[in-house]
Design brief:
Blueprint: E1 6-7, E2 12-13, E3 20-21, E4 26-29, E5 36-38, H1 77-89, H2 103-116, H3 129-141, H4 153-161, H5 165-178, H6 181-198, H7 207-219, H8 228-247, H9 250-264
Antiparallel strand pairs: 1-4, 2-3, 4-5
């Protein structure tokens, strides 16, 4: 819903290309989501409005809830957009999430997305899909505490260690339900995504491969400064947690993000 062009008084980043709209230039602002963009970027503007974030830009670092929208499902726009992009054009790529993207581009795009806040520039201009995967992993790794949180970390490890599969699943469901709402919704959204990746024959990324990649990223350690011994002992257990989480039925995860969230991501 564009309004007539307006003049920019305070330089702000364009919601599509990410570069600044300078003082005195004309720009377009959406009435619904307040997205601000260069008049020349109007063609590239995503047609669907993203809800406006609480604040204009996100913090450089924070816990997951700092990046989440105010209405459920509480999944940060950055996560939704990276996942949507990967599922749109990445499910035929071998080694998705295992093959690294160019480090400099990953850093550049992560910075660009964090600077933009809730109205993100389109990721379709990122040629290499591995860079988009890198941005998502880097965002999750850069949180002040892992997705499973420091306080619930030991409970996740204990639940995954239970030898009986059914008992382990029950314990894990219980611990997942105790997560802060934004962490729980985002974990559910990511699990559904990783299950789709694991089902793509072209990616050659089964549950075991994905759990090796995502164990350190999603589960991490029980404190911000783990000892070398803790790092060594945690690594195999982190993978075990992700593998067990991926063995839970998709219907369990859908219970948190609802069916509307599914529509954001092409099946």
């Amino acid at each position: 819903d564009p309004v007539p062009p307006l003049q920019v008084i305070r330089p702000e980043p364009c919601g599509v290309c990410g570069s600044r709209i300078r003082f005195g230039k004309t720009a377009i602002k959406c009435c619904q989501c307040q997205l601000l963009l260069h008049t020349k970027c109007r063609e590239q503007c995503p047609s669907l409005c993203t809800p406006r974030p609480h604040h204009h830009t996100w913090p450089r670092e924070g816990v997951l809830a700092d990046f989440a929208p105010s209405t459920p499902p509480l999944v940060p726009t950055l996560v939704v957009q990276c996942v949507t992009e990967v599922e749109t054009r990445g499910l035929t790529e071998t080694g998705l999430y295992r093959v690294p993207g160019a480090e400099q581009l990953v850093r550049e795009w992560k910075r660009k997305l964090l600077r933009a806040g809730g109205a993100l520039p389109a990721l379709s201009s990122v040629t290499d899909i591995h860079v988009v995967c890198g941005v998502l992993k880097d965002f999750l790794r850069g949180l002040k505490e892992p997705l499973v949180t420091f306080s619930l970390h030991p409970a996740f490890l204990r639940a995954a260690d239970i030898p009986d599969d059914a008992a382990s699943d029950t314990a894990l469901r219980h611990v997942v339900s105790k997560l802060p709402p934004a962490n729980r919704d985002t974990l559910a959204f990511l699990m559904l995504h990783l299950l789709r990746v694991s089902h793509s024959p072209d990616c050659k990324m089964d549950v075991l491969n994905l759990s090796r990649v995502f164990g350190p990223t999603l589960v991490g350690h029980s404190s911000a400064n783990p000892t070398p011994l803790a790092i060594m002992e945690d690594t195999p257990r982190q993978c075990k947690v992700v593998a067990r989480l991926l063995s839970l039925p998709p219907s369990f995860w859908r219970g948190f993000v609802g069916t509307e969230q599914e529509n954001l991501v092409p099946m």
